[in-house]
Specification:
By secondary structure, the protein is an all-alpha fold. It has 13 helices and no strands.
């Protein structure tokens, strides 16, 4: 019923009814924590909700949608206007990022600047993952996907701003120290997407290169080194030529890793990273 109604209404009605719709949307986000359905059923219902919400957003202009989006961000990160007091912070954040990721896939670069409203919250969340204050693999994955989409679809050089780059770069790369193998590929994509976005800015390349090398030191865990190597490998695959100037800093680390005690790390460097760098050269 809701889906059909949203499909049918025109832009004028969508604008005038938007506060009511978004109030309902937040209630629907809270549904998971009170429902007795199994996880798969709830996920299917949520997917329909996200699709309907995306259809609604397309009928609104930026001036109307932006303040409503800010309300959603405060609901997710600060618990403002939460109806169901039993809903946990993690559940709220998962609900928000599921919706936001769908929105980014649909609207792409149009809403890159919306990240301004959650940038500070996101960096704090990344730090909390490193400190293990929060440990939810689903939320971690959704957060990394969200960042990757924002970096990838940025057409207005939003992430090339030095202040934003510096704010997000270190906490993102530091995820290498705590990343689970099951979501490692999402972290690699996020790091390489941010790097590709900034490949024309020499200062940013140097910062990223230095940070990644710190996660490939002998004192790091094998898992940390492995995902750092895979991140560097993907960066050289994507933007190799602009990173060749940084190769002299990386070579001693590669030499160390080729004699690493962990066979998987040594193999990844020998058959993966070295070959990619050679191809670029």
């Amino acid at each position: 019923c809701l889906e059909n109604t949203v499909d049918a209404i025109d832009k004028k009605i969508a604008t005038s009814q938007s506060p009511i719709f978004f109030k309902l949307l937040l209630k629907l986000f809270e549904y998971r924590s009170v429902s007795e359905f199994d996880n798969n059923t709830i996920s299917r219902i949520e997917a329909t909700v996200h699709q309907t919400a995306n259809t609604y957003v397309l009928k609104m202009n930026d001036k109307v949608f932006r303040p409503l989006f800010v309300i959603m961000v405060k609901w997710a990160f600060e618990g403002e206007n939460v109806t169901n007091k039993k809903m946990t912070e993690t559940e709220r954040l998962i609900a928000f990022f599921k919706f936001f990721n769908k929105l980014q896939e649909n609207l792409r670069g149009i809403i890159t600047s919306y990240f301004t409203y959650l940038l500070e919250y996101t960096t704090k969340l990344l730090v909390r993952f490193v400190n293990k204050d929060i440990e939810d693999i689903t939320l971690h994955r959704l957060l990394l996907i969200s960042l990757t989409s924002s970096f990838k679809y940025d057409k207005d050089e939003y992430w090339k701003s030095t202040s934003r780059f510096k704010l997000i770069c270190e906490p993102l790369v530091n995820q290498l120290s705590v990343i689970e193998n099951s979501i490692g590929k999402f972290l690699v994509k996020a790091i390489s997407s941010l790097t590709a976005n900034n490949s024309g800015v020499e200062e940013h390349n140097q910062i990223m290169n230095k940070l990644l090398i710190t996660h490939m030191k002998a004192t790091c865990s094998s898992r940390e080194k492995l995902w750092a190597v895979r991140s560097v490998k993907l960066i050289y695959s994507k933007v190799g030529e602009s990173w060749l100037i940084l190769l002299p800093q990386l070579v001693p680390t590669i030499a160390e890793l080729l004699e690493d005690d962990d066979e998987e790390v040594e193999y990844e460097v020998r058959t993966g990273l070295v070959r990619v760098v050679e191809n670029v050269l």
